[in-house]
Amino acid sequence: MFGYVKPYKPELRVCELETYKAVYCGLCREMGRAYGPLSRATLSYDFAFLALLEMAVSPQDPAFCPKRCAMHPLRRQATCMSCPALERSAAAAMILLYYKLRDDLADRGFWKKLGAALIYPVAATARKRALRRSENAPELDRAAAEMMASQAALEKAGCASADMAAEPTAKFIEHALSALSTDDGQRTVLARFGYLFGRYIYLCDAADDMEDDKKKGNYNPFLLGQGGEDALAWAKGSLLATTAELAAALELLRIYRYKPILDNVVYLGLKSEAARVTEKRSNKPE
Amino acid sequence: MSDPYQVLGVSRDATDEQIKTAYRDLARKYHPDNYQDSPLADIASEKMKEINAAYDEVQAERKNAKNGGGAGGYGPGSSRGGYAGYGNSGYGQSSGYAGYTPPSEFADVRRMISQNRIAEAEEILDGVAEGSRSAEWYFLKGSIYHRRGWFDEAMNHFARAYQMNPGNPEYREAYQKCMYQRNTGNPYGTTGGYGTDVYGCSCCDLCTSLMCMSMCCDCGRGC
Predict the structure, then answer these.
(1) Is residue A207 part of a domain?
(2) Closest to A268 (Cβ–Cβ): which among B29, B178, B194?
(3) I need a surface site. Which of A11, A127, B53, B181 has the fewest CB within 10 A?
(4) Number of domains forming the structure of chain A
(5) Model confidence over A66-122: pLDDT tens digits?
(6) Inside any domain, residue A131
(7) Whole-angstrom Cα distance, residue A55 to residue B114?
(8) Which CATH number is B136's domain given?
(9) Of the candidates B111, B177, B184, B168, which has an alpha carbon nearest to the alpha carbon of residue B134?
């Protein structure tokens, strides 16, 4: 995942920002603890959000403690202590990293391949460790493998529908999130939220890469799709339709804490990222 | 049963006016229209029932208190009039296929969709030959796509249905809702407490603002 899921900071209250940071730091620490210091370099906002979401829908209160780390050597930073949500997020991050690298090794340019080859052994070890450590990891791993396979098939077939191209990622996150509850109603909402969340991430990434893919002749569903000349405007419409339905799903989730933070991310953060990736061109001086 | 004040998100010492406002906000947010083509429609309608029950309970409790705390007397309130009656405050009537059944060539498909039997419904629709697909066919197909989360396809199909039969309020509303979401990124009924609300907008207002929006976009591109 690529860091498109962020809070919109100007509208976040100071205490909410502190909580968000604490979860972010907690995830970083958890990754270091479980998968070695190198893994911390792959930390992303998306997984911090996933951890925060799991904490929000779990009845147990997370624990916080001020900690120092290499990034913050002078000031102790409030940090979320290790908990199932952080463990699950860290494991998911390692599994996805592994599959992302395998993908890069298979079909990227020379430098990308070289970079991927250098980190690959570390990622492979981390994934193995994740499979051993986390109870849900093997199932998640299978889902990730499935996602990569169907994604590759779609790209090979030159799929021109953004809806269809987003489906593998969407199904993967749907799978990951519906594991967070045993209650039927809550699972249905989590599944919908997860599907749309995955769809959003995929489409955001596709919109962000559009210019690059055009130059290099890479696959991109928006370049082949019905947007034509206005592919960016079309992409923005798809993204906004997704955030609208994400918000509708969020309102039906049973949430124990952090609702204002989730609202901020879903109602503002996602939209501001959607605008950023689809309005780049028009912001450039002519 | 859970505390009705908690369900409405107000404290016990809130004024009647505050309670009314809280109820209206919630009713707007969970209105069945907002979850029309969503797999979460049933869950949203459960939520709406819970909110209505909580509001009735609070109203009844307060009425009793005002009448000297007597136990008997008033039954659960009739004051809210349900969210169906909520439409007369200008929010827009529920015209969806949940409430009103127009004469339909696909009655069975509609029934299947409302029972969440999507695969069966789609099979029947896909059996219709390409040349003989009506506006209703496109509308229903769009509705299935929307449930699945395929919003581009949904939008294309709703647009086609609306274009084939512009007079049908069902198709128009589905299409306008899609356009609204694609332009604002917000669901109907709430902006999560940020920015302006659509409350008080009639369908006409919505339509006009969409037209304005699209005109502005064109200008932006031209410049």
Answers:
(1) yes
(2) B194
(3) B53
(4) 1
(5) 888 877 788 888 899 889 899 999 999 999 999 988 888 876 677 778 888 888 888
(6) no
(7) 33
(8) 1.25.40.10
(9) B168
